[in-house]
Design a protein that fits this description.
Blueprint: H1 4-27, H2 35-59, H3 65-91
Helix pairs in contact: 1-3, 2-3
Keywords: Membrane, Transmembrane, Transmembrane helix
Transmembrane segments: 6-22, 65-84
Length: 102
């Protein structure tokens, strides 16, 4: 069972991730660098966090504390990747020359 301090810590961590994600996503259209490279890096970090979450769930049965934090990181990196992907497609830079992007 979670204590109230653990709930507060989790909520603060989620709020921090939410604020950072909001600022990064709002700044994507103004990004001057290669957004495709940024998108690929965020996809890698999403995959790493997802693998760590699954490993945590498999090896620490019954202890959800760290898995919840890792799950929030998966949502954080995944949302930034999705926003970068959308921005990349909208700008036309991520368009597939053969027209296979859907």
């Amino acid at each position: 069972m979670f204590t109230s301090s653990e709930w507060i810590g989790t909520a603060v961590f989620a709020l921090i991730l939410l604020i950072i994600a909001y600022r990064v996503i709002r700044g994507l259209p103004k990004m001057t660098g290669d957004i495709a490279a940024f998108r690929k890096r965020t996809l890698v970090w999403t995959q790493v966090a997802l693998v760590l979450t699954v490993l945590q769930l498999n090896f620490k049965a019954g202890d959800w504390r760290f898995a919840i934090i890792l799950g929030m990181i998966v949502l954080f990196t995944g949302s930034i990747w999705l926003a970068a992907r959308r921005e990349d497609l909208r700008s036309g830079a991520g368009a597939d020359p053969a027209g296979h992007n859907k």
